[in-house]
Design goal:
The protein is an alpha/beta fold. The chain has two domains: 188 residues, Glycogen Phosphorylase B (Rossmann fold, 3-Layer(aba) Sandwich), CATH 3.40.50.2000; 153 residues, 3-Layer(aba) Sandwich (Rossmann fold). It is built from 14 helices and 14 strands. An eight-stranded mixed sheet has the order 9-10-11-8-7-12-13-14, sandwiched between helices. Strand 7, helix 8 and strand 8 form a beta-alpha-beta unit. The longest helix has 18 residues. The N and C termini lie close together (10 Å). 45% of the residues are buried. The model has no long low-confidence stretch (mean pLDDT 89).
Length: 374
């Protein structure tokens, strides 16, 4: 029986990999497909009913190392041990598979290539020619180490093709991953609904505290406002409850409420519900911000906590998403609220939901077409 190994290194990458695995299983039901997350506990796999081959301690950066400070923090919290563990696992198992799919960055691809000569496919999720092209060294490694590349956008695919790399853009799987529930949130036509995206890493708890203060300031000035929160699977309700600021309480698993003002934040059942219900998105996220813009939303970003929500990060994201992402360089909550309210006057809920690219199906078909293992 043929075997496929899918290796990912990041929360968003794990989610993307789960959709690809589901598509591969639909087309190759007799194959054995295994998943190995290099970063974190593999919760996206577990939630999708896929048992990961291993799980890792969650490091402070959450796998998003973009500064010497973040690297040093991870180093002192077990980065070397985690890397060695991943290398040992891949040395033991990678040669037992018929092909390997790497979802993440070039570092992930390198690890997948150390101990085998199997066909390797690469989904580079972290880089795009819109905001951060692959370096010359990365291009050389990609050309040497993988059979085929599936980029996140057409511009990057064309760039890699010029370097004689077998690259294609067949859609972005992160847009396949927008799911909806049948929950009725009872918002009225006169309500102005803000969607809140605090992110998925541990820094999201600190981002939430900033959003709580911002919500209070917005609701003081702007009447008929409602707020709906996208809670990532990597954040438990218990964690949120234990980190609530004074005067905020959790009401079951459906909302957070300020007992002094009565201001409430509804906790969405599914991420897609936030996109469907909101007029404007306040986004302190990576993948979720991109999904919101794809859906048709305008996203307002500002500095939060950690590497994922720095000014540098959002300026890069703005290059990818264009005018639909507005970065406000303001740390004062009251002034930030004023600017958000001013922007909101000209922005309302998108008219229609875009259809998914079905990128996971397209990429799965291409992988199967390009290999002789089927």
């Amino acid at each position: 029986m043929k075997k496929i190994l899918v290796v990912s290194n990041g929360y968003g990458e794990d989610l993307i990999a789960t959709y690809l695995i589901k598509s591969l299983k639909r087309q190759l039901s007799s194959f054995i497909i295994k998943a190995l997350p290099l970063v974190g506990d593999g919760l996206s796999y577990i939630d999708a009913g896929i048992k990961p081959l291993s799980s890792q301690k969650i490091l402070p950066s959450g796998g998003f190392i973009r500064s010497p400070k973040a690297f040093i923090r991870d180093l002192f919290n077990g980065l070397i041990t985690q890397t060695l563990k991943n290398i040992i696992i891949l040395k033991r198992i990678s040669n037992k598979f018929d092909l390997i799919i790497s979802v993440g960055d070039v570092y992930c691809l390198i690890l997948c290539s150390l101990f085998n000569k199997k066909p390797r496919y690469f989904l580079p999720t972290a880089k795009s020619d819109y905001f951060m092209p692959h370096s010359n060294i990365e291009i050389l490694l990609i050309k040497k180490l993988c059979k085929e590349v599936f980029t996140r956008d057409d511009l990057t695919a064309n760039s890699l093709k010029k370097a004689k790399i077998n690259a294609h853009f067949l859609g972005n799987i992160m847009f396949d991953a927008i799911e909806f529930s049948d929950q009725n949130y009872n918002f009225n036509a006169t309500d102005y609904v803000f969607g809140l995206l605090p992110g998925s890493r541990k820094e999201a708890l600190l981002n939430l505290k900033k959003l709580f203060n911002l919500v209070l300031d917005i609701s003081k000035t702007m009447k008929n406002t409602k707020f709906i929160l996208a809670k990532a699977n990597s954040l438990s309700l218990e964690e949120i409850k234990n980190n609530l600021p004074n005067e905020w309480q959790m009401r079951g698993d459906i909302k957070l409420e300020n007992v002094k003002t009565g201001t409430a934040i509804i906790i969405a059942k599914k991420f897609g519900d936030v996109l469907k219900e909101s007029d404007l998105i306040l986004g302190l996220a990576g993948t979720a911000n991109e999904q919101a813009v794809y859906f048709g939303h305008t996203v307002i970003a500002f500095q939060g906590a950690g590497e994922q929500t720095t000014k540098k990060r959002f300026v890069e994201q703005q290059k990818l998403l264009g005018k639909k992402l507005i970065f406000i360089d303001e740390n004062n909550i009251s002034k930030l609220a004023e600017k958000i309210i001013l922007i909101s006057k000209n922005i309302h809920k998108p008219c229609a939901v875009k259809n998914s690219f079905s990128a996971s199906e397209n990429i799965a078909k291409e992988i199967l077409k390009g290999t002789q293992i089927n």
